[in-house]
């Protein structure tokens, strides 16, 4: 209980720190939101009036005070470029990004685990070298480059997948939430599910490939160490096949050290959604973030960054909880 | 009595060509306890590992035969060999702290082989596991079956491993220094336990140890190894008798004794080692 309170407090301090840094940095950066809004010939008077209207004529600390008092009451301000409430705008986009990142994570885990298992079972053979080579390649190409490669190869040269948007507009599902993928599954509306997945597949794969290589590499190393331990050797002597031994005895123990790293890497993946979503015109948080930055939409940038920070912290929390669930030694007390 | 394990001319080498076992031959009959003694590095554990098919990576059997119930293990295919060993041979490992999977409950680790290799149904396997835990003097079997290894003591874990080894009624048990990692008070209990269970179940036991005191108590016959070479082999009565092989005598003198401390813990004399090295070199020469 005490732990939980401490954790909540540190979370709040972290979020406050993030808010201060972002608030200051985006105001120091060149570019003026007001200049972006008015036509080129606007008078000094108009500019000043609009500036006062958005509170931008005040000092930075004063602006921060106003913004913070709003946030405490659940008001994240109004987007300058879209003229909508930042809170609802950002939360509206969040489900799309969560679904994309979640799918990417699942792909990365499946791919990474498969590669690690193959590399471990076929040690010191061609297959292991092939896995190492593949990992090196996956690691050295960043997610957005994979995105571009996929768009060119699988979207244009061989048009297997749609390369733009989240869903075919003609489907236009009338859903209660913006978790379209999850809701379509719950409603057994598989036509929508299939369309969503076909739109999400390439961006998710682009995000997943580098992470899958990290998982494969670390898990393979970890498995290699565990496969020499006494209880694994003993299980082998009991007459179990190598693959049974690997899955029943070794994998769970080998996953533990991998998990922390996957958590950290997953936060990079969430960061990667910013560019990848833009590439695929996927209507998520990342796409919104880029537009907000281009338009110098200060309140919107502020809101998005804060939400990203919350996502990172939540990821770490989930990793810790999973760790405890997988490791019986951490379970009691 | 029938011969359970018969090893003939066993040669084990590393990939680099280093000889770990030099033409070792021995046999163990039903219900018999055979001791394997020697200093560390003599290759005594390698014999057990070769039989169980768990030699470390890069170490292989290069010559000789291992017969289990009359079947030559080395002539069998991998799958057949794994099954046969899984059904007929069990191991009591050296270190109870590392020989149990920390992420699995004790029960599953005893019953997995009964269920998946011997084809028992889960209920019967569980009953059997509880029965065996009682046999190794664990008072609350139901609780221990549901516990994780970190929840029970080291001595208790070793007893769990002994129970697991005997549960499947194997023809042969290889005990690989089962008391080395335990403290002295627990050692005695564990030895008595292994001896009792072995007598009751009529299992053949290959007992690997560096402790001559343990051998004297437990093993009617033994093999003495030096650098992978059989130095002496035969009845314990003869080897512990008035005229043992000099190396065996040196090993006995190296054993700690509480009654005569000044006569114990003596290092092996250099002239004995020199004589052994000559003997090994000679055997190597004869072998080609």
From TrEMBL, chain A:
Organism field: Palleronia abyssalis
Entry's localization field: Cell membrane
Protein name: Dipeptide transport system permease protein DppB
Protein's gene: dppB_3
Keywords of the record: Cell membrane, Membrane, Transmembrane, Transmembrane helix, Transport
Organism placement in taxonomy: Bacteria, Pseudomonadati, Pseudomonadota, Alphaproteobacteria, Rhodobacterales
InterPro entries, per database record: BPD_transp_1_N, MetI-like, MetI-like_sf
Membrane association type: Multi-pass membrane protein
Positions of transmembrane segments: 12-30, 100-121, 144-163, 200-219, 254-280, 300-326
Domain ABC transmembrane type-1 residues, every copy: 94-323
Family: Belongs to the binding-protein-dependent transport system permease family.
Gene3D superfamilies registered for this protein in UniProt: MetI-like
UniProt keyword annotation of Cell membrane present: yes
A GO CC annotation given for this chain: plasma membrane
Entry-linked SUPFAM superfamilies: MetI-like (SSF161098)
Molecular function as annotated in GO: dipeptide transmembrane transporter activity
Automatic annotation (TrEMBL), chain B:
UniProt domain ABC transporter: residue ranges: 5-252
Record InterPro entries: AAA+_ATPase (IPR003593), ABC_Ni/Peptide_Import (IPR050388), ABC_transporter-like_ATP-bd (IPR003439), ABC_transporter-like_CS (IPR017871), P-loop_NTPase (IPR027417)
Family: Belongs to the ABC transporter superfamily.
Cellular location(s): Cell inner membrane
Tree of life domain: Bacteria
Gene3D superfamilies, alphabetized: P-loop containing nucleotide triphosphate hydrolases
Protein name (Swiss-Prot/TrEMBL): Putative D,D-dipeptide transport ATP-binding protein DdpD
